[in-house]
Structures are given as structure tokens and as C-alpha cells.
């Protein structure tokens, strides 16, 4: 009898040591391929049914770590018919095993919509939703994490999570005292809400906004990241949803978070403000009234790289709505900050966003255009448009911004550099603005001559009868004929020829 007992004990010890070693080895990426080649998946599967609970849990943990590493290993878990066993165990086993089983489901689901669908197809959603009602916060957290990873892929998977009844329970989870559980539940609500207005509405209907809004000043940075992400994913879809977020009285409190030491918190706050501002002039005005535009401009000045991007876009959306809102951006010194971004940011997509926003500010009236032009951004926009190294999107945005500003710009000194360097499609807009201003402005007419503008104008080869030729004629008509002739190409040669041919009177 004792021999049998010792054999069983030794066998149990060996199994336990095996799964612990595999679980430990699976934490290091350099071991993964060796473990895969050794066929550990098929060796771990029977241990999920082991009579010893700790061996079951460790086997599940090892499988989760392997599946988490890449989609090939996750695929192997699916093909090994391991998922149904895990789903069954979620309902039957203790809390330690439930956490480990939920971890495996999350690790498989995260890689692709197809693998997430495999998790759904084996009946995991109902079991995971039941886990959200467990007493143990660790089990709830593991289940919420898995549900979020399934929902984040697409609207269909997200809808399946909603249909399983997850949303009201996730809203309850964000009210629990454990910060880690709050974070993961908020993240899952964000993943669900981002997919469509209808899915966002389910989270709103379950009361998510009010509970998320209460946490915007929570000291935990990782929680705030998820809170702001969830609110912005809800606000982005429609005016109604954005208004519901605003009605939770998040302003002006959210503006203090634009100075948060955590870069992701700052970026997510700026994203939330952008998603609200883009919908209507009224929502943008509300943000202006609470000091939001000035706060975002400060935030752009304090940030670098991609963290700046939502702030830059937010100013563009605000300015696009109306003359007054664009002027609010100008008055808060937004143009100078955008000019810095346009010049110093190395990434083309950030320059493109800055160009787009400057175009939205400058397109309203001559006063708006002048405010942009005096920041000396027109030559920079032209340079970015003409640079063959610029991305196609940057070239398009720079060109559009130039045209938007030029169509309103009557500040001719800012146009002088463009007259010298611009290609014909931009030059037409530049000359068009001169043709509007010069007939009515004596000082500008004089400056146009002394700056070399009139000389440059005579060098432009325009098609007879073209719009460009009409602009040139209109400008030339502002000057005496002999002045125009004097600055025309070849005039000095003709003059010299006359000198040579001149016969003095004896």
C-alpha cells in the first residue's frame, strides 16, 4: 500500500514539477519555439483535467502564456480542442482556475478576429459573463479582460459580447472598489463602444457615462487612460452621444488632465475633447467658454510627436465651424503654436494635420488669413507641397491649406515669397489676390514695384485669354504703361539697342 502511495506521490510531484517548469519557461520569448517544437501543447492538454487543482491551474497558465506569444500557438490551442475544456471548467472549477482559464481565452482571442470567433464559437461568452458576477474581483477582472479582447476586433464580435449580457455587468464592475477591475472594465466598455453608434448606445443606456465621469480625477493614471478612452469612443459617433458625455459635467474638470504627467492620459483627454468639438458649433463653443481652446494650445506646446496630434486636430474642427470660433483659436495664440508644429515635427502625418488646421483657421475672412500669413507659414506650406519627399497626404493638405488661405489673404507682403517660388497652380491664386488688392491700395502698388513683384509678374507666361492673363492685365492696368514696359523681359536689351542705334545730333 505504501509503495502504491509513494508511486502516486512521485507521479503527482513529477506532473506538478513539469507544468511549473513549462509555465516558467513560457515567460521567456527565447524558449517559445523550443517548447512548441517539443509538442508541449499536447502534453499540457490532459493536465487541464488533472485531479490536483494546482496542476490544472498551472497547466492553464502555461497554455495561456504560450497562446499569448503568437497566433500560431493560439491556433494550436484551438486545433488541440482545448477551448471547450476551458469553457466547461469556467463554470465548474475554483476561482484560481477560472482566472487561468479566462487568461487562455483572452490570449487566444487577442490575435485576430478569426481566433476571437473560435473562442465565441465554443460557447465562451456565456461562461465569461457568468464570471463577471463572481464574488472574487480577480475572476471578474480576468473575464472582463477576455470579453474586451473579443469585442475590440469588429462590430460583429462586439455585438456578440453585448448579446451575451456583458454590458450592465461591466458597468457594475467599474463601480467596484478595486482599481485594477475598474481599469479593465472601462477598457472593455471602450472596446465595445468604439465599433458603432448602436453599440456605444448600449453602454450609455446601461449608465456607463455617469460612472466613468465620476472617475476623471482619480489619482490612478492607468484608470484615467481607460476612462477617457471609453468616453471618447462614446462621444465620437453622434451629436446625441457627445451631448450626453458633456451633460455629465466633465468640463472644466477634464481640462486639468491636459497637464497630467502621464502622456497617455493627456492624449486621451485631447482625443475626447476633439471628438466632442467636431460635431457642432454649439459643442465647440461650450469648450471655448470653459477655456478649452487655450488649454489645448498649452497642451500642444508642452507635448511632442503623436501626443500632439488630437490637440492639433481639435483646433481644426473648432476653427472649421465658424468665423468666431476660428478667431477664438487665433486670439488664444493657436496659430503660432501650429506654425511650430509645422516646422519642427519630423512626422509627415503631424505636419499634414497642422497644415489642415491652419487652412481651416485662415479660410474665413481676410483678417483670419492675415493672422495665419503673418506667422510666416505660407512659404513653409509651399515648401512641403513641392517637396518630393513629402507624403502624398501632406502634399494634398499643404496645397489645400495654401489655397484656403490665399483665397482670403489680402496681406500682400506675405505673398511676395510665393510670387517668386510657387508653381503655376498656386501662382494663379497668389496673382489673383494681388489683382484684387492693388487697384484699391496705393501703398501696396508702390511696394509691389520695389519688392520686385511687378518685374516677376511680367515674366509669367500666361495663355492668352486665361484667368491668369486676366489677373496680370488687371494688375498691369494699375501702373503707367512705361513702368510696365520697363519691367518687361527684354526691355533693357531694347533700351541698350536704342542707345547703340541712337545718332546724336551734331
TrEMBL record:
<comment type="subunit">
    <text>Interacts with SPAG16 and SPAG17.</text>
</comment>
<protein>
    <recommendedName>
        <fullName>Sperm-associated antigen 6</fullName>
    </recommendedName>
</protein>
<keyword id="KW-0970">Cilium biogenesis/degradation</keyword>
<dbReference type="GO" id="GO:0005874">
    <property type="term" value="C:microtubule"/>
</dbReference>
<dbReference type="GO" id="GO:0007288">
    <property type="term" value="P:sperm axoneme assembly"/>
</dbReference>
<dbReference type="GO" id="GO:0097228">
    <property type="term" value="C:sperm principal piece"/>
</dbReference>
<dbReference type="GO" id="GO:0001669">
    <property type="term" value="C:acrosomal vesicle"/>
</dbReference>
<keyword id="KW-0493">Microtubule</keyword>
<dbReference type="GO" id="GO:0046847">
    <property type="term" value="P:filopodium assembly"/>
</dbReference>
<dbReference type="GO" id="GO:0005930">
    <property type="term" value="C:axoneme"/>
</dbReference>
<dbReference type="InterPro" id="IPR000225">
    <property type="entry name" value="Armadillo"/>
</dbReference>
<keyword id="KW-0969">Cilium</keyword>
<keyword id="KW-0206">Cytoskeleton</keyword>
<comment type="function">
    <text>Important for structural integrity of the central apparatus in the sperm tail and for flagellar motility.</text>
</comment>
<dbReference type="InterPro" id="IPR016024">
    <property type="entry name" value="ARM-type_fold"/>
</dbReference>
<keyword id="KW-0963">Cytoplasm</keyword>
<dbReference type="GO" id="GO:1990138">
    <property type="term" value="P:neuron projection extension"/>
</dbReference>
<keyword id="KW-0966">Cell projection</keyword>
<keyword id="KW-0282">Flagellum</keyword>
<dbReference type="GO" id="GO:0003351">
    <property type="term" value="P:epithelial cilium movement involved in extracellular fluid movement"/>
</dbReference>
<keyword id="KW-0677">Repeat</keyword>
<dbReference type="GO" id="GO:0005576">
    <property type="term" value="C:extracellular region"/>
</dbReference>
<dbReference type="Pfam" id="PF00514">
    <property type="entry name" value="Arm"/>
</dbReference>
<dbReference type="InterPro" id="IPR011989">
    <property type="entry name" value="ARM-like"/>
</dbReference>
<dbReference type="GO" id="GO:0008017">
    <property type="term" value="F:microtubule binding"/>
</dbReference>
Amino acid at each position: 500500500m505504501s509503495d502504491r502511495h509513494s508511486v502516486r506521490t512521485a507521479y503527482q510531484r513529477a506532473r506538478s514539477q513539469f507544468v511549473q517548469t513549462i509555465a516558467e519557461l513560457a515567460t521567456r520569448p527565447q524558449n517559445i519555439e523550443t517548447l512548441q517544437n517539443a509538442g508541449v501543447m499536447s502534453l499540457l492538454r490532459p493536465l487541464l483535467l488533472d485531479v490536483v487543482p494546482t496542476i490544472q491551474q498551472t497547466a492553464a497558465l502555461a497554455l495561456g502564456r504560450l497562446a499569448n506569444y503568437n497566433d500560431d500557438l493560439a491556433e494550436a490551442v484551438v486545433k488541440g480542442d482545448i477551448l471547450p475544456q476551458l469553457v466547461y471548467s469556467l463554470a465548474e472549477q475554483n476561482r484560481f482556475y477560472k482566472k487561468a482559464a479566462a487568461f487562455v481565452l483572452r490570449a487566444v482571442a487577442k490575435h485576430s478576429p478569426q481566433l476571437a470567433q473560435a473562442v465565441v464559437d465554443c460557447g465562451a461568452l456565456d461562461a465569461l459573463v457568468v464570471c463577471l458576477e463572481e464574488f472574487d474581483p480577480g475572476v471578474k477582472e480576468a473575464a472582463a479582460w477576455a470579453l474586451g479582447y473579443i469585442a475590440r476586433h469588429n462590430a460583429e464580435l462586439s455585438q456578440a459580447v453585448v448579446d451575451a449580457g456583458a454590458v450592465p455587468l461591466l458597468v457594475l464592475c467599474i463601480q467596484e472598489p478595486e482599481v485594477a477591475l475598474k481599469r479593465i472594465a472601462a477598457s472593455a466598455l471602450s472596446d465595445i463602444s468604439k465599433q458603432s453608434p448602436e453599440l456605444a448606445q448600449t453602454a450609455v443606456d446601461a449608465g456607463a457615462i455617469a460612472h466613468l465621469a465620476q472617475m476623471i480625477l482619480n489619482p490612478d493614471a492607468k484608470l484615467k487612460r481607460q476612462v477617457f478612452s471609453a468616453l471618447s469612443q462614446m462621444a465620437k459617433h453622434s451629436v446625441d452621444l457627445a451631448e450626453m458625455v458633456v451633460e455629465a459635467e466633465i468640463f472644466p474638470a477634464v481640462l486639468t488632465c491636459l497637464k497630467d504627467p502621464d502622456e497617455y492620459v493627456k492624449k486621451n483627454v485631447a482625443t475626447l475633447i476633439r471628438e466632442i468639438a467636431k460635431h457642432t458649433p454649439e459643442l465647440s463653443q461650450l469648450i471655448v467658454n470653459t477655456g478649452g481652446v487655450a488649454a489645448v494650445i498649452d497642451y500642444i506646446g508642452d507635448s511632442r510627436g503623436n501626443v500632439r496630434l488630437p490637440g492639433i486636430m481639435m483646433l481644426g474642427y473648432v476653427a472649421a465651424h465658424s468665423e468666431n470660433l476660428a478667431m477664438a483659436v487665433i486670439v488664444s495664440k493657436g496659430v503660432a503654436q501650429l506654425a511650430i508644429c509645422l516646422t519642427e515635427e519630423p512626422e509627415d502625418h503631424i505636419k499634414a494635420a497642422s497644415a489642415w488646421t491652419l487652412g481651416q483657421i485662415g479660410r474665413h475672412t481676410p483678417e483670419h488669413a492675415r493672422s495665419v500669413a503673418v506667422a510666416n507659414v505660407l512659404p513653409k506650406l509651399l515648401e512641403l507641397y513641392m517637396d518630393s519627399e513629402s507624403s502624398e497626404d501632406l502634399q494634398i493638405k499643404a496645397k489645400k491649406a495654401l489655397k484656403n488661405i490665399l483665397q482670403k489673404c489680402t496681406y500682400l507682403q506675405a505673398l511676395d515669397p510665393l510670387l517668386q517660388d510657387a508653381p503655376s497652380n498656386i501662382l494663379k491664386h497668389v496673382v489673383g489676390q494681388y489683382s484684387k488688392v492693388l487697384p484699391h491700395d496705393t501703398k501696396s502698388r508702390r511696394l509691389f514695384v520695389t519688392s520686385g513683384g511687378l518685374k516677376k509678374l511680367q515674366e509669367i507666361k500666361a495663355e492668352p485669354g486665361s484667368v491668369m492673363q486676366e489677373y496680370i492685365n488687371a494688375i498691369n492696368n494699375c501702373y503707367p504703361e512705361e513702368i510696365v514696359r520697363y519691367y518687361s523681359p527684354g526691355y533693357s536689351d531694347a533700351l541698350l539697342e536704342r542707345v547703340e542705334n541712337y545718332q546724336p545730333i551734331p
